[in-house]
Write a structure and sequence with these properties.
395 residues; single chain; 7 helices; 4-stranded mixed sheet; phage-related protein like fold; 2 domains; Immunoglobulin-like; 7-stranded mixed sheet; globular; alpha+beta
Length: 395
């Protein structure tokens, strides 16, 4: 005789499953750059001007009791920090809010904050989606100073990092001390086997430092917000106290229930909040940053950089932009300053200076003592660029 039973499959529709009362997710990862750079007082307008030492004074020995004492100069330059805006709107139907078991806004807001942090790190360190108002990113500035270390197939990782031509040495040669390092999580595997000549690890857990890991005694960070771009750099080291930022408008959250949302490209109305019974979460953040790079005794012409980076095995594509600066008599001007987005180079005896830039449009400012300052537009695309600039003598 068959034995009948109400199985679990028969009763599945009326069995209540346990539901965990929280949403399982990772803790939002915030900005590595903002945690390392030096914060200045909040901006009171859209642009902040910083006075930066540009020319150092000199001292001279006086020869004999009746020798003549010489004069010197000291000069300052202006570095501007302009606020750029990060914002996003999250539209949600009111019916969805009413039916949801969780506070949707409470779940969305931390993730939007994380997205803002990711954008900040990408723009300031790697130049990805950099706002037009900002100067060049850390990688670009380091590249112009020659602070990029190439990786070859037989390269020793110790030498690339701590050797005489390594990334630490690049920063130190420009007169700065490394106080932090940033790398992708995958870099840990390459660092674990590094040893000093005495067999001591240079990459280790540091339970008493500001971060869990240390590289040659300096704190090391592994961003988990998705901002670190392996195609641009494997490792970034430097004196992060030289990078400064200021907030114009802290993260503000506003809930809108009136108005329309347009497509940014076509300008067509996508949502009408009032007509479609919707609300929208609007998040806005504004900040500026700069790498002032003041003159120091080890970086008097301000062409150095407090950062260096280890390139990936296939370096990012750049094109050389060669400037030749001359006077109205077609004679080369040595020592002219060329500045592009905060990065500075001096011309050599042939009046030349070479930048290495990614594709894009740039504005170059060319100046020399005794000459009028000139501005040149530069477009970098698929080939190298040459520019001849003629400066006129000040009247």
């Amino acid at each position: 005789m068959p034995v009948n039973i109400i199985s679990r499959e028969n009763a599945e529709a009326i069995i209540r499953e346990q539901i965990v009362s929280t949403i399982f997710q990772d803790v939002p990862k915030q900005s590595t750059f903002l945690s390392l750079a030096r914060k200045l007082p909040n901006m009171t307008s859209n642009q902040t001007r910083m006075r930066v030492l540009d020319v150092l004074p000199m001292a001279y020995w006086v020869n004999g009791d009746t020798g003549m004492k010489q004069t010197t100069e000291q000069a300052w330059d202006n570095v501007y920090m302009t606020a750029a805006e990060l914002a996003v709107i999250v539209p949600i139907p009111e019916a969805v809010l009413s039916d949801a078991e969780f506070d949707i806004f409470g779940e969305v807001t931390p993730r939007v904050n994380e997205a803002i942090a990711q954008r900040i790190d990408s723009a300031t360190i790697f130049g990805v989606n950099r706002p037009a108002e900002w100067d060049a990113d850390i990688i670009t500035r380091a590249r112009q100073a020659g602070n990029n270390v190439a990786v070859s197939n037989d390269a020793d990782m110790y030498d690339l990092i701590l050797g005489e031509g390594g990334v630490f040495a690049k920063v130190e040669d420009d007169g700065y001390s490394v106080n932090g390092a940033v790398a992708a999580l995958g870099m840990k595997a390459k660092l674990r086997g590094l040893r000093t000549g005495d067999g001591l690890p240079i990459f280790n857990n540091n339970m008493q430092g500001s971060t869990r890991y240390a590289l040659d005694g300096e704190p090391m960070y592994f961003p988990e917000n998705g901002a670190f771009d392996n195609s641009i750099a494997q490792l970034v080291v430097g004196d992060f106290s030289q990078a400064v930022y200021a907030i114009r408008q802290d993260i503000t959250v506003k809930i809108l229930d009136q108005g329309v949302i347009q497509d940014p490209s076509t300008k067509e109305i996508v949502y009408n909040l009032a007509q479609q019974d919707m609300v929208a979460l609007r998040v806005v953040f504004r900040m500026g940053w700069a790498l002032p790079n003041p003159a120091t005794r080890l970086n008097e012409d301000r062409t150095g950089c407090p950062f260096a980076y280890l390139e990936p095995s296939t370096p990012m594509t750049t094109k050389s932009v060669t400037f030749t600066v001359q006077n109205s008599s077609n004679n080369a001007i040595e020592g002219a300053t060329i500045e592009i987005l905060g990065a500075r180079l001096k011309t050599n005896a042939s009046g030349q200076a070479v930048f290495n830039l990614r594709a894009g449009s740039y504005s170059a400012k060319i100046s020399a003592k005794g000459y009028n300052t000139a501005t040149e537009a530069v477009t970098v695309a698929g080939s190298n660029v040459t520019k001849t600039v003629t400066l006129t003598t000040k009247s």
